[in-house]
TrEMBL record:
Taxonomic superkingdom: Bacteria
Cell membrane in keyword set: no
Name of the protein in its database record: Aldehyde dehydrogenase (NAD+)
Active site: E260
UniProt keyword Transcription regulation, yes or no: no
Gene3D superfamilies in the cross-refs: Aldehyde Dehydrogenase, Chain A, domain 1, Aldehyde Dehydrogenase, Chain A, domain 2
Length: 492
């Protein structure tokens, strides 16, 4: 059992991998250096797993699945076994929040209210679902009775990104474990440290060795995980470009795969919407985590009759956001995760200018932040849907406002995207908003607000991904279906 975690410098230095239930040495000489996005200084390190390390972790997960007790326990027994795992994380929510803010620059208020508690909520939800989910079902059938068994898919390789590291880990880790799978988790190199709290939770809960394995790694070792023949399924969250590569590699082996990829989500503001209430409700989800979120409502569609009003209201609200130190509870917009990410966002801002869009707000680096990878909240007006800034996922605090003429035009523009992950419709007429929502090709929408419903399926159309997470559908994605045809009753 590990010691209590405190967020001090020693806790930010890790020198082992978690494989087979133990902390073990990596075969790599290199370390992953974790750099603070706010100070640009090193705050910690973790071992960089080699392909051989990844293979060792897969073998441990394979042995735990093929020969260990975990997949042979009842769903309720697994849910019970995960309770101390959940309790360990629950007791450390403040430390988790602080650590994620250190790693990736999430404003501490966001980390405290979402980054840290949601993983615990997801564990609680899927543990509870174990008691009601139909892991077995009898059917009368057309030719005779059949029993449908839903069995764990096997060894899961899970690759998670840096922007909401523990949330996006637990979205798939929780249902995978409840289903009876064993997991090799590959956290992002920008945020490897919070994953070690999961290792400590697994040891606290005395999970069977190999049920959970954690191997921070760079891209070559990540590809080794995807390619490994003893991995039955890959769960990937990240960019659409990398998702395409993961899907291609899985296709070579007919390996099961779930992909949750990029987004360019539209927020459709109809002419009857009350801007005084709409804009304050929209802004937290338009520039949440400095726009570094696939769900961010960064493509704002405004009725032409009120276009300038919307541009001005959005710009005024964005200008009022507090940019600053992510450790300050007053901060609403923190730094981007890395210098390369800031360069990417600045390249898109330059592209928007070149294509003829107008910067109504921002466009540079905040003068108040001489250090750190900051970009000002930026609002583009006079945007055409064909521009790069309207089509590509920028992953920064950049909003584009696009005019539309009527409901049909709004639907056309909303669907004029290679993505289809999220969105919102804002109107005083909920029936009208619902009619529009039915025509948007996207995985989730909210009317007059924005929220994520963890008990309902979540996922994307088009290049936003394959498969669904959350809810019973998320648990189903880690199960294989087996039909056992039963003998027909003998008639005397």
């Amino acid at each position: 059992m590990s010691s209590h975690v405190t967020i001090q410098a020693p806790a930010l230095v890790r020198d082992r991998l978690f494989i087979g239930g133990d902390m073990v040495e990596s075969e790599a000489d290199d370390l992953i250096e974790v750099i603070s996005p706010a100070t640009e200084e090193k705050i910690g390190s973790a071992p960089s797993s080699t392909p051989a390390d990844v293979s060792r972790a897969v073998r441990a997960a394979r042995a735990a699945f093929d020969d260990g007790p975990w997949p042979r326990m009842s769903p309720q027994e697994r849910a019970d076994a995960l309770k101390p795992f959940t309790d360990y994380l629950r007791s450390r929510v403040p430390q988790i929040a602080q650590l994620i803010t250190e790693e990736m620059g999430s404003p501490i208020s966001f980390s405290q209210h979402l980054q840290a508690p949601i993983p615990v909520m997801l564990l609680d939800y899927f543990r509870g679902l174990a008691t009601t989910f139909p892991f077995e079902e009898d059917r009368a059938g057309l030719t005779g009775p059949a029993r449908i068994l839903r069995e764990p898919v096997g060894v899961v390789g899970q690759i998670v990104p840096w922007n909401a590291p523990l949330i996006l880990t637990m979205v798939n880790l929780a249902p995978a474990l409840v289903a009876g799978c064993t997991v090799v988790l590959k956290p992002a190199p920008e945020t490897p440290l919070d994953a070690y709290l999961l290792a400590e939770a697994a040891m606290e809960a005395h999970l069977p060795p190999g049920v959970l394995n954690i191997v921070p790694a760079d891209r070559p070792s990540s590809e080794a995980l995807v390619r490994h023949p003893q991995v039955d399924k890959i769960s990937f969250t990240g960019s659409s470009a990398t998702g395409r590569r993961v899907a291609a590699l899985c296709g070579e082996q007919f390996k099961r795969v779930t992909l949750e990829c990029g987004g360019k989500s539209p927020a459709i503001i109809l002419e009857d919407a009350d801007l005084d209430s709409v804009v304050p409700a929209l802004m937290p989800f338009a520039i949440m985590m400095s726009g570094q979120h696939c769900l961010a409502q960064t493509r704002i569609l405004a009725h032409r009759s009120r276009y300038r009003q919307v541009v001005d209201a959005v710009s005024e609200a964005a200008a009022a956001l507090t940019v600053g130190d992510p450790h300050d509870p007053a901060t609403e917009v923190g730094p981007l995760v890395a210098e390369r990410q800031r360069r990417r966002v600045e390249d898109y801002i330059a592209s928007g200018r070149q294509e003829g869009a107008t910067i109504n707000l921002g466009g540079g680096r905040p003068s108040s932040q001489p250090k750190g990878w900051y970009v000002e909240p930026t609002v583009f007006a006079d945007v055409d849907s064909r521009m790069r800034i309207a089509q590509d996922e920028i992953f920064g605090p950049v909003l584009v406002v696009i005019p539309f003429d009527d409901d049909t035009d709004a639907v056309r523009i909303a669907n004029d995207s290679k993505y289809g992950l999220s969105g919102s419709v804002w109107s005083s007429d909920e029936d009208r908003a619902m009619r529009i929502a039915r025509h948007i090709r996207t995985g989730s929408l909210t009317i007059n607000g924005y929220r994520i419903e963890f008990a309902a399926p979540f996922g994307g159309y088009k290049e936003s991904g394959i498969g669904r997470e959350f809810g019973p559908e998320g648990l189903s994605s880690f199960l294989e279906y087996k039909t056992v045809n039963l003998p027909n009753a003998t008639t005397h």
